[in-house]
Amino acid sequence: MERVKFTSEFICRASPNIVYQFLTDPACLTRWFCDEVDINDQTYTFVWEGSAEVAELIEDKEGEMVRFAWEDADDDDEYLEFDIKKSPVTGETIVNVTDFADDDEVEDQRALWLTQLTRMKGVMGG
Fold it and tell me: What stretches in the chain show pLDDT beneath 50?
C-alpha cells in the first residue's frame, strides 16, 4: 500500500501561542490528543489506551509550528506537522495538519484529525 502525504486545515479562535501550547504542553495534550504523555528532552511518548507511541520533536518554532517524526514510521521522510498561521484578513488562527496515511485511509485520517482538532478547540475555548 502506498503512503501519501495529506494536509487538513482548521480554523481556531485562539491565538497562535495558545494553539502552540496545546500542541506541546503535556497538560494540554492530555486534554485532547492522548491519555498520557511523557516528554524527555525532544522525545515525546504518547499513550492511548495503554499503548505507547514514541515521536521525536524534529522542528519547533514557538507559536508557528511543530513537527514530529514517529519512531516506528514506515518511511524516514514521514512526519506529523502542525503549522500555525494568523489570517491577515480575518484574524483567525489557521492550523494546517500534515500527516501521512495509506492511500486508502486518507479520508479516515482526515476524519480523525477533524475529531481531534474539534476536541482541542473545545477544550481551549476557541
Answer: none
